[in-house]
Design brief:
By secondary structure, the protein is an alpha/beta fold. It contains 24 helices and 15 strands. Strands 9-11-12-13-10-14-15 form a seven-stranded mixed β-sheet. The protein has a six-stranded mixed β-sheet with strand order 3-2-4-5-1-6, with helices on both faces.
């Protein structure tokens, strides 16, 4: 794929530029192509304006501006002398008018004249925030992605702003020195994913409020800027592996995979892992372990909800997914977290009939990106129903883990962690009795039981005890009972290899006792039989067939 410099150097007549900030594209062109003639058109301008005047704000806007069609007609009808220098016309906010049929016709006529008239040397550059190219123009032009600034530009802007704001160490009346945060690697890392204009705003606001470059303020500014896209969000998570009970096999794999992100691992030549897929019932700790990965590896966590990218406007969904992936690449190195991915990426097989293939094209773009992405992005996805995911998406992940219900030892660990969070001494509780009583409960259900026990104890005017917790557990309906069909379906999909003592299609997140797995399967089958008997009993209406 050509970049903007190559397209202009090769005199491409039609260029569609995707950029987060159009003013940064204009500044780039002004600085790097001073020998070329650039004219800028916007719906607020009275006419096309030379690029230098736009940069220096030497133009007048009026309520009645010329239409895009009029400007295109003027370009089409222009007469150029022999060997005249090329002229480039830049159109801002292109997605607002590029799909108009008359504008499409004018653009096609301009490209046609460019091909037939050797003196007609014109470049049309349409800038928008996402890919919005009418099908009639797709084969006539080039699509260019104008990346967000890299580390070199960010460091240069940071140095410039530090000098411009006259930042220096300050000494108050008490002799206390307030150190100014210099543009260290940590500061630059937290500026990734921002435009240069946003970097300037962040520095100015930080200086105005804190009289220095405050790292926490920069982090919060970036979090707010990413959230404004309404497509991504940065997660603040203090969860560590020590806060999660069980899943030793999964934790071991994550710790081992951390080597690819270290300087030593890169020198060794370790290839980066692409991603991790976690399958299991809700409440078993899938999302929790995803949040802990960022802290374990020291990377920011970018949460991506695929359902947010879909739009009713033609072509916008496909443009949104490309925009999301571009932002994520610019934030990298990072962890991209997709929670309950099946809800956002389900329906690819029926997409042709239900939404004219939009979902299929979006998933196709994501799959291609996962396959070809060379930036350090680790994708972590969770799924409560693996059967809704397309097989080609499942195979893109380096490893698949099945997060099942916690076993005896893991439940003891979960109780120890949550009791400590409640500021209670775990040694004063019969953890084995509690673990035995909470068989087939998920980690979330154990947490809920402890919360209810705390309220019961407070209401009775006593401290929480083993007996109070046991009374609450006796009233709990386990996840195994309410979702037996789903768990059976997942266990069937995962499979069991007796020789490896692990799953076939996905590994178990914790060491599995074969006897416990057999008991679980027998209990599921019994529950399903009981439900079927109740449904077929006299006077009981049959529910829907699953």
């Amino acid at each position: 794929m050509l970049n903007l410099d190559q397209c202009l150097g090769a005199y491409q007549p039609l260029i569609f530029t995707v950029a987060e900030s159009d003013i940064e594209v204009l500044k780039y062109l002004h600085e790097h192509f001073q020998d070329k003639k650039f004219y800028v058109y916007s719906t607020t301008f009275t006419d096309k304006i030379p690029l230098a005047d736009v940069i220096n704000h030497k133009f007048i806007t009026k309520s009645k501006s010329r239409s895009t069609q009029e400007v295109l007609s003027e370009i089409l009808n222009r007469d150029f002398p022999t060997q005249a220098p090329a002229e480039t016309y830049i159109f801002l906010d292109a997605d607002a008018y590029i799909h108009d049929r008359q504008n499409i016709r004018k653009i096609k006529d301009i490209v046609s004249r460019y091909q037939m008239d050797e003196n007609f040397v014109v470049n049309l550059v349409f800038i928008s925030q996402f890919v919005s190219v009418p099908p009639a123009l797709e084969r006539l032009g080039e699509i260019v992605f104008f990346d967000l600034p890299g580390d070199k530009l960010l460091r240069g802007m940071s140095d410039f702003l530090t000098e411009k704001l006259c930042l220096k160490d300050e000494v108050n009346d008490k002799g206390e020195v307030t150190k100014v945060v210099k543009p260290t690697d940590e500061v630059i890392n937290n500026l990734r994913g921002l435009t240069l204009h946003e970097v300037e705003r962040a520095y100015v606001q930080s200086f105005h409020i804190h009289k220095r470059i405050d790292l926490d303020f920069i982090r919060n500014f970036k979090k707010s800027a990413i959230a404004k896209t309404d497509l991504l969000s940065l997660m603040d998570s203090s969860v560590k592996f020590e806060d999660i009970g069980g899943m030793d096999t999964l934790k071991g794999w994550i710790k081992k995979s951390c080597g690819g992100w270290s300087i030593e691992g890169q020198k060794f030549g370790l290839p980066l892992m692409k991603g991790l897929l976690l399958v299991g019932l809700p409440g078993c700790g899938k999302s929790l372990i995803c949040k802990a990965i960022g802290n374990q590896w020291g990377l920011p966590i970018v949460q991506f909800d695929p359902s947010r990218i879909f739009s009713s406007r033609v072509g916008e969904s496909e443009g949104n997914i490309r925009r999301v992936l571009s932002i994520v690449e610019n934030i990298s190195p990072c962890v991209m977290f997709l929670d309950e991915v099946e809800k956002g990426f389900a329906g690819s097989q029926s997409s042709t009939f239900s939404d004219s293939g939009v979902t299929a094209r979006v998933i196709g773009t994501f799959l291609s990106w996962m396959q070809d992405c060379t930036k350090p992005v680790f994708t972590v996805a969770t799924s409560n129903n693996i059967h809704y995911l397309p097989p080609e998406l499942i195979q893109r992940f380096d490893e698949k883990f099945f997060v099942s219900l916690p076993q005896m030892r893991e439940r003891i660990e979960i109780y120890r962690i949550h009791l400590s969070k409640l500021k209670r001494d775990p040694s004063k509780f019969d953890l084995e009795a509690l673990s035995q009583a909470s068989q087939d409960l998920s980690g979330r259900e154990i947490e809920q039981a402890l919360r209810e026990a705390m309220y019961d104890a407070f209401h009775d005017g006593i401290d929480i005890s083993t007996q109070i917790i046991l009374k609450v557990l006796a009233k709990k309906t386990s996840l195994l009972t309410t979702m037996s069909e789903s768990l059976k379906s997942m266990l069937t999909w995962v499979g069991w290899d007796k020789d490896k003592k692990d799953g076939i299609r996905a590994r178990f997140a914790h060491p599995v006792e074969e006897d416990n797995l057999a008991r679980l399967q027998d209990q599921i089958n019994q529950l399903i039989q009981d439900v079927e008997k109740e449904g077929n009993a006299p006077g009981v209406e049959n529910g829907p067939t699953i």
